[in-house]
Request: fold
Amino acid sequence: MIFSRRRGTPGRHARSGESRPGPRHAAGRHEYDPDRPDHEDEDDRPVVRGPGPYDISEAPDGVQRLDLGSLHIPAIDGVEVRVQASPEGVIQQVVLVNGDNALQLGAFAAPRTEGIWDEIRAEIRSSLLDDGVKAQESDGEYGPELRARVRTPEGLTDLRFIGIDGPRWMVRAVYQGPAAVQPALAGPLAECLAGLVVDRGTEAMPVRDALPLRLPKELADQAPAQPAEEQIPVDTPPNGNAPTPPRRRPSPGTRRT
Reply:
């Protein structure tokens, strides 16, 4: 199933240079003024705001988004949203496409008190190495990220793994295509990631479990699921490495959040 937004379609999204409030994420930095009495404790240091993803509790108003349950994807000109869904409307994969670039998105449960991207990133690197693939770590907009070139049925493919820790959730984003090598080429896909909204929900979940995704009811009723073979093969569990069959799901964790 493909949802697309063509240029000229009505809607509102952040323009280049437009400031927006941001969430807590892996690249969060703190501003600290020791002379301010309300900053006597390090825990009171405010998080510097930046681009999203946003938690549902702090998402900006007035933005048109596609509601897929735990992920609300902003409508951005030129971006297609491709999903693989069951006949019941349960989404198993979300891939955004713009030109030669693709961005696979997933959201996972995380603990209340700490992020999980650091440990998952280490596991990705180790798993890639086990497959004979060397990953390079670099510093990106959201903090440390991994880049690797893997072999897929379509040939050698460049991937860039990004992890963004939020309140009790983590977004894992995987770029494929030229944007995996040159972040400046991500364009509208980067704008989608910056405007993404995560609805974690309130139920306890095992850490690293995928947050549930679903089609809007009106869309599930009128459109069939897209076959797996039409999907861009970048789906991995949060600590996975190379592209895997789209039906593969993240392994359950042992902790609940």
Q: What stands out?
A: Residues 6-49, 225-236, 240-256 have pLDDT under 50 and may be disordered. The CA atoms of residues 46 and 86 lie 42 Å apart. Residues 57-219 form a domain with the Protein Transport Mog1p; Chain A fold (CATH 3.40.1000). The chain is about 10% helix and 30% strand.
